[in-house]
Amino acid sequence: MPVARALRLAPAVAVLLSGTAAWRFPLHAQARPDTRFEIVVPAAFRPDPLTGRAYVMISRTNDREPRFQIGRTGVPFYGRDFEQLRPGTPVVIDRNDLGHQVDSIDEIPAGDYYVQAMVNVYSEFRRADGHVLWMHDDQWEGQNWRTSPGNLYSTVQKVHLDPKQGYRVRLSMSAVNPPVVIPPDDRWVKRFKIQSPTLTKFWGRPIYLGATVLLPRDYETSTISYPVNYQQGHFSLAPPFRFEVGNDVYKQWTDDRFPRVITVTLQHPTPYFDDSYVVNSPNAGPYDDAIMNELIPEVERRFRTIREPWARWLSGGSTGGWIALAMQIFHPDYFGGTWAFCPDPVTFTGGAINLYKDSNAFYKDFGWYRQPTIYSREVNGDVRETARQRSYLELVSGTKGRSGEQRDVFEASFGPIGSDGYFKPVYDKRTGVIDPVVVQYWKEHFDLLYLMQRNWPTLGPKLVDKLHVYVGDADTYFLDRAVREMDAWMKTTSNPHYEGFFVYGDGKPHCWSGPGNGLDRVRDMAEFGLRKKPDGVTTPWWTY
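Above: the chain sequence. Below: its structure as tokens.
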């Protein structure tokens, strides 16, 4: 057919085809068989009305329960919110509910699967700012709804699913997650948990802070005080460095040639996440105030620490890396030095999403075309996850920022409050469209590089010699990009000129912490402390 004729016929053909589609599609849609999961909470488990979120997980295998198979590269799952649900009334998850990995249950290929349902229980928070929010009340598990005490789950069922034939699968809650078991204290590791007056007042419900303390050798038999390494990171009740009697860490920690210091991990889960980022946030609350004025003073009251800035050190990786840098920058006179590993974006141009340049979090625009934003990668460059996939993982895990996942904690920690009391998102999790007004709020309050640039005349002199940053140049989440920006800027500083200390691991992924291991960094801290102690101060903790 000549090209000219084809072009003349194209509009007519398009009209005919669009008319045919308009005639056929409604009939096809109406004829689609019903596909649904019905999730039921029996009165025996919850006799009162319940508010929360229900999930169904679909797996080809049953090596582990399906609820433990979801994740960045895990099996498909789907969720739906419910309010004041009465016992026996089903929560229906159908083709209209968004899923992760596979957008709709109608797109699950016909076959035999193992399915399981869960219910994440929400509690009412009447905050001091007047907002009433329904959130998951952390039960000292670190905002993990799959394992949180009191959350409900069903037995695993093997079923045949075929969207063309239709199905209705009923899943009844049959078990409850048990309480968290706190490991007992021993000679080396001590734990405590306190209710925070500041945070309890903000949230209108009891909010707790805690610490896990690893003591040096001879602590029980000596009377001296020790430097302390405040090690930041995600919620965990495990000992720092995974210390365990008999393992390699134990052998090094107790060796006569190892410097004697105290290492402390802090526990501060929020109703949004397993960690607060140690900032004062209109969404998560005044965690910086609570940790600096309540938790750390309690550590120093209970244990023999040297209560001087030169002997207070910070360290941590990823989330903990950002916190370790932020606490040093926000409290430069209180801490004597920080060792930050693979920190979360120290400026919001870095990482996978460039909030200052991109207009959409899901795509990179290149003039006439666009490419998906890669959120995480393998060391060899293979794509692990796109930004859209990451966002859908969190959106399916929880609406209104209640996923307990990484992007949501950025939003809750760094962003402004929305009209409904939940955070105002920096981008739409369904479309990826970025809100420049919220971006500016992030920048003004929590862009660490920008805060240093803006306040360098007064902040710079207090930070000299204190910043140590380590990152792999193949970081899984592209976090090396923001670190390089900070590194480049610090080389230009003046009055004072301070370049910082930056180390890059060749071909190393997330979360590289420099040559050797974490205990090697403790040795670095101890040697640093020797150089920074005031003249005349003795160091019995260093005496072997």
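Residues 1-29 have pLDDT under 50 and may be disordered.
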